[in-house]
Automatic annotation (TrEMBL):
Residues 301-699 form the Glycosyl hydrolase family 95 catalytic domain. InterPro entries: 6-hairpin_glycosidase_sf, 6hp_glycosidase-like_sf, AFCA-like_C, Alpha-L-fucosidase, GH95_cat, GH95_N_dom, TAT_signal. Residues 41-276 form the Glycosyl hydrolase family 95 N-terminal domain. This is Uncharacterized protein. GO terms for molecular function: alpha-L-fucosidase activity. Keywords: Plasmid. It comes from Niveispirillum cyanobacteriorum.
């Protein structure tokens, strides 16, 4: 899976290349307008703060629209704009110190081991580089008084943010969208009163930059990213803003542009950096930004909008959802619905949240772009929380949980390229830090694909980041059954597994092969100490990884000896265990009851329940019961992403009422900002994606060779539908339910195959020909052919 180059994205030649890079659809995709209530976020006042502004994005460029009246602010981002420049953080003392760290762990001297790891194993610098804002476009409008009928909205189906109000006899409309087709952000200003658009436009940036006006109608802001952690800021960037007015006048005033008495104004925004790859910043941002802007300038704005919406809707309209009829509550503004979510019973809010997550993924992850980071693509701070980069012990992975099931597999392409990059930088880390083959990455990475542990051993000395990322490579294959894709990524999952073949060590106490040093992300088994050997999550991930490498090798007819070695090594890993308190054990030793944080936000050892499936109610009921006990001890109240994970876990346990309760907690104002961004707090986008995935899991699950229908349907959603949901084996389902039971099921498959559909204890086996479909209905007792 490869995407277009950044130059192709910016010069307008990407459209055919993107189309060629996308996986084939499982069935003919429709772009018809979905039925039901329109998925729109609505407000009756401008945004006062950033988390009230409305996001648009095309995967590479992002903007936040505040919807001001006399002053409008568009805050801008470009997905490759990070601090620093290419660097290698591997600590040169790590390899020689590693044996002593291991010895101390096996001797039970955990504090001493962690202290030595902090001194000798951590990356240099200790922090990674942060994602940066480009700056703001500011519009100032004189003479707007007596405003009435104000509205602000984000239309998820049209991917357009709109501000509208009246003053005097004039109706003013401002529309913002980010086009992936033309690689520009577009702001259109109109009024029903000719000659009434007068404003000043300027640009500001927190970066080291200079601005000028070119051609009388284009502001050009050029600069360089900041130095951080001693890594010199060398990444050049350029942002261009062009003003195109119908009638009236456009003049340059110093470094601003002044528009007077225009009928309509179109503002085009382009941006680029010198980034070409993690080790190459030789690009020409001025040429790239100018080319995209010039190409967009020659297209009428109606064509820009039409092309943008056609491209976007081809993704968004693949899935529709209806969780029940709208209530009177659905007419409230979105911020009021969130504020009162605990007291309102409105199924359309959950449906809106589901589609908002899909909208955000489309806007922040498209073929050829960077993957969605901790904030997707939207960030206003030069020092954002956790660097707004990629945290690999849950957050980056959670961003992509909805991609396969909610029919956005195309959006996984940036994640695949991230893994491909990390297999290169991670090979260097594996050799220099561990003396091992293959590749490794710890709990964080940035634009420069740093793969050494950072921040501190208590948080990051966890070498399984790559193993978890590889699950997404397998998932992408398992949903599509595209053997060409599997062959393409096989060296990545094989290389990841080779690292562990070289680094697993026999635990002298138990005799199992263990990862050491490691940790159970980011939980402490002693006060201030997380370092350990062989935590449960590591074993769960490695069992999946070794099985998948072996299965891939068999499917591709390769590496018979390696396949046998994978399965033999897998058999030497510690199994999941039930602790003395009936919980699923988090560590090799039964430390759970003594752990300092009994309600820790991470539930890492429940990976095998979700997103894995080795623990489930059907095959391992005792372990599933222990996982439930763990969730009860941890409690449902966590960070935004922690709650998002718990929705999925309760859904896997088949507890629709508990999943619904936890989803309600996610929708409360302390976990969801007025613009529906997830609140960690602060903003982290993974909670949005986890919530979307969780709703899908409540309705349709795909694991263990079966498709599970309505496995965790709550009583609050007795009637509804979800269409276009994808399942493993290259299948797609339209599911309608009535009175809590399946009413109509349509199953399709592009490649064809055998499928087993299950509802409660009833199951039906289907054989679907390539490109065919089967229709089923509930006859009151079982699923039968329609």
């Amino acid at each position: 899976m490869t995407g277009p180059s950044r130059r192709e994205l910016l010069t307008g030649s990407a459209a055919t290349l993107v189309a060629a890079s996308l996986p084939p659809p499982v069935a003919a995709q429709t772009v018809e307008k979905p039925s039901g209530i329109a998925p729109i976020l609505r407000y009756t006042r401008p945004a006062d703060v950033w988390v009230e502004a409305l996001p648009v994005g095309n995967g590479r460029l992002g903007a936040m629209m505040f919807g001001g009246i006399t002053g409008e602010r568009l805050q801008l981002n470009e997905d490759t704009f990070f601090a620093g420049s290419p660097y290698d953080p591997v600590n040169p003392e790590a390899l020689s110190a590693l044996p002593e760290v291991r010895r101390l762990i096996f001797a039970g001297e955990y504090k001493q081991a962690q202290d030595l790891a902090d001194a000798k194993l951590m990356g240099k610098p200790l922090r990674q580089m942060a994602y940066q804002p480009l700056g703001d476009v500011l519009l100032t409008f004189p003479g707007l008084e007596g405003v009435r009928e104000y509205s602000r909205s984000l239309d998820l189906d049209g991917a357009i943010a709109t501000t509208r109000f009246r003053t005097g006899s004039a109706l003013f409309t401002r529309e913002l969208f980010a086009s992936a087709v033309d690689q520009v952000i577009v702001l259109r200003l109109t009024s029903n009163r000719p000659g009434s658009l007068t404003f000043n436009l300027s640009m500001t940036s927190p970066q080291i930059s200079d601005s000028r006006v070119e051609g009388g109608n284009t502001i050009v802001l050029s600069g360089v990213g900041p130095t951080q952690q001693g890594v010199e800021g060398k990444l050049r960037f350029e942002t261009r803003v062009r003003v195109l007015a119908t009638k009236g006048s456009v003049t340059a005033q110093n470094n601003d542009i002044y528009v007077e008495q225009a009928d309509e104004v179109v503002i085009l925004i382009s941006a680029a950096t010198a980034y070409r790859r993690f080790g190459d910043i030789s690009g020409d941002p001025a040429a790239l930004a100018a080319s995209a802007l010039d190409n967009a300038t020659i297209k009428p704005v109606d064509r820009l909008l039409a092309d943008h919406q056609s491209d976007y809707r081809a993704l968004f309209r693949r899935v529709s959802i209806d969780l029940g009829p709208p209530s009177a509550d659905s007419t409230l503004t979105t911020d009021e619905r969130i504020r009162r979510s605990a007291e309102l019973a409105d199924p359309t809010l959950a449906a809106l949240y589901f589609q908002y997550g899909r909208y955000l993924l489309i806007c922040s992850s498209r073929p050829g772009t960077q993957p969605a980071n901790l904030q997707g693509i939207w960030n206003e701070k030069t020092n954002p929380s956790w660097g707004s980069k990629w945290t690999l012990n849950i957050n980056a992975q959670m961003n992509y949980w909805p991609a396969e099931p909610t029919n956005l597999a195309d959006c996984v392409e940036p994640l695949v390229r991230l893994i491909r990059d990390l297999s290169i930088t991670g090979a260097r880390t594996a050799q220099k830090m561990y003396g091992a083959r293959g590749w490794v990455v710890h709990n964080n990475t940035d634009l420069w694909r740093a793969s050494a542990p950072v921040d501190g051993a208590v948080w990051s000395l966890w070498p399984l980041g790559g193993a978890w990322l590889c699950q997404h490579l397998w998932d992408h294959y398992d949903y599509s059954r595209d053997k060409a894709f599997l062959a393409d990524v096989y060296p990545l999952i094989k290389g990841c597994a080779l690292f562990f073949l070289d680094t697993l060590v026999t635990d002298p106490a138990s005799g199992y092969l263990v990862t050491v040093p490691s940790m159970s992300p980011e939980n402490r088994h002693l006060e201030g100490v997380s370092i350990c050997a062989g935590p449960a999550m590591d074993n769960q991930l490695l069992r999946d990884l070794f099985s998948q490498v072996a299965q891939a090798a068999s499917l591709l007819g390769r590496d018979a000896d390696l396949r046998r070695q994978m399965l033999a090594t897998r058999a030497k890993l510690a199994p999941d265990k039930i602790g003395a308190g009936g919980y699923l054990q988090e560590w090799l030793q039964d430390w759970d009851a003594r752990a300092p944080e009994q309600t820790h936000r991470h539930v890492s050892h429940l990976y095998a329940l979700h997103p894995g499936s080795a623990i489930n109610r059907r095959d391992t009921p005792e372990l599933a019961t222990a996982a439930r006990r763990t969730l009860e001890i941890r409690t449902d109240d966590a960070t935004g992403w922690g709650i998002g994970w718990r929705v999925n876990l309760w859904a896997r346990l088949g507890d629709g009422e508990r999943a619904y309760k936890v989803l309600g907690m996610l929708l409360e104002p302390r976990r969801t900002y007025p613009n529906m961004f997830d609140s960690h707090p602060p903003f982290q986008i993974d909670g949005n994606f986890g919530g979307t995935a969780g709703i899908a899991e409540m309705l349709v699950q795909s694991w263990g060779g079966e498709v599970h229908l309505l496995p965790a349907l709550p009583r609050a959603w007795p009637t509804g539908h979800i269409t276009g949901i994808r399942v493993r084996g290259d299948g797609q389902i339209d599911l309608h339910w009535q009175d809590g039971r399946p009413d109509q099921v349509i199953m399709r498959s592009g490649k064809g195959g055998n499928f087993t559909l299950r509802y409660v204890q009833n199951s039906v086996k289907l054989r679907i020909p390539a490109g065919g479909e089967r229709r089923l209905r509930w006859d009151g007792a079982k699923l039968v052919g329609a």
